[in-house]
What we know:
The complex is a heterodimer of chains A (123) and B (217). By secondary structure, chain A is α+β, with helices and mostly antiparallel strands. Chain A has a single domain (2-101), classed as N-terminal domain of TfIIb (Single Sheet). Chain A has four helices and five strands. Chain A has helices at residues 4-7, 40-46, 52-61, 77-89, and strands at 2-3, 25-33, 90-98, 105-109, 112-113. In chain A, strands 1, 2, 3, 4 and 5 form a five-stranded antiparallel sheet that branches. Chain B has a single domain (14-216), classed as Rossmann fold, CATH 3.40.50.150. Chain B has helices spanning 14-17, 23-34, 36-41, 56-65, 79-91, 129-138, 153-165, 182-193; strands at 46-50, 71-76, 96-100, 115-120, 166-177, 196-205, 208-216. In chain B, a hairpin with a 2-residue loop joins strand 6 (196-205) and strand 7. Chain B is globular, with a radius of gyration of 16 Å. The two termini of chain B are 29 Å apart. The relative contact order of chain B is 0.16. Classes of the chains: A alpha+beta (123), B alpha/beta (217). Chain A binds chain B through residues 1-3, 5-6, 8-11, 13, 21-22, 36-39, 41-42, 45-46, 49, 51, 88, 106, 110-117, 119, 122, and chain B through 43, 45-46, 67-71, 73, 75, 77, 79, 82-83, 86, 95, 97-102, 105-111, 114, 137, 139. Bound molecules: S-adenosylmethionine (SAM) and zinc ion (ZN). Zinc ion binds at residues 12, 14, 17, 21, 99, 101-102, 104 of chain A. S-adenosylmethionine binds next to helix 2, helix 4 and strand 2 of chain B. Chain B: It is found in: Nucleus. Chain B: One of its GO terms (molecular function) is nucleic acid binding. Chain B: InterPro entries: DNA_methylase_N6_adenine_CS, Euk-Arch_PrmC-MTase, PrmC-related, SAM-dependent_MTases_sf. Chain B: Keywords: Methyltransferase, Nucleus, S-adenosyl-L-methionine, Transferase. Chain B: Belongs to the eukaryotic/archaeal PrmC-related family.
Amino acid sequence: MVRLITHNLLACHVKGCTTNNFPLQFQDVQIELQEAEFNPDFVRNLLPRLEWGALVDAAKQVGDTSLPPEQPEMTDDDVLQKLHHVLLEIHITEGAMVCSNCKHIYPISNGIPNMLLSEHEIG
Amino acid sequence: MIPTPDLSHLTKDDYEYVYEPAEDTFLFLDGLELEVDELRTSKPSICLEIGSGSGCVSAFLASILGTSTALFLCTDINQFASSCTLATGRQNKTPLDPIIGSLATPLLQRLRHSVDILLFNPPYVPTNMDEADGAQHTAGIQGSWAGGTDGMQVTDVFLKDVEVLLSDTGKFYLVAIKQNDIPGIRHRMMTEYGLKSVIITQRRAGREHLFIIKFSR
Ligand SMILES: C[S@@+](CC[C@H](N)C(=O)[O-])C[C@H]1O[C@@H](n2cnc3c(N)ncnc32)[C@H](O)[C@@H]1O
Ligand SMILES: [Zn+2]
């Protein structure tokens, strides 16, 4: 499943594409919401691993504007709840992710991203 | 006893394209089960399995840790394997996040020193190099076992990334067979990356002498 947490961890890895290769931009995406069990500790542990700006942006691209533009210093339960929803309950089922730098297109089909490159694109 | 994941949704047809759990898989599960206490107390939040195949191993890890406690990322070069991994997650009510990709390549940049549990049951069977190259290229079922010279052609590429991926307390569990030269692997990981290792368990199964090795800082 391409959840927004997964999207926040994927970067373009085409040979030589090393700047502006993250985050990938969504293209023609279809979305499905699936409830997931809320575990505040897990969400809190993910915080240091997130690129906040990229997450807020990705959420906007799929129509969710619940997150503040800057990462809040205090993460109370309300923020954690919102993060939980954005990171773990929004699923991208179809569409693509495009690299802003080299324009490589990574398709998403049946909820699975295809990040494979052809031989000449591998670094 | 941790129950073996429910794989009843996978059929003979799936196993035409995707590695069917076998002795190596089951030894991997047994090895993880021996680690239950350590796995739970370390409270991992990011788990990554390379070459997840059916998804059996990550689903098992999720049932050890609790399905809402961590992220279970699963890469495989074989797209049918990624589909099976997704289905196995659903069947076992545990969110597995499959990614079609080679090794950890699409995640390396963002997961630097972030992976708490790293798992790999690689294609470890010694074959000639062309067979392994071809299998990697076609990304079909041959890629499940064709390991090239010493069965290490694919694993060796990944070993270079392990230290970069592991978090401070991260652990890497690897399946290997005797012909892979286990003392050599362990020595290289120590001298080149400062990662220590222990053998968690081993078993003879037919012609294969299988080992589960754990690496950590
Ligand atoms: C021995 S099977 C293990 C499958 C499953 N984890 C298990 O234990 O039953 C090896 C798996 O690695 C995958 N694989 C081979 N080369 C790979 C690569 N370069 N990147 C990611 N996965 C790979 C194969 O497609 C296959 O699913
Ligand atoms: Zn790119």
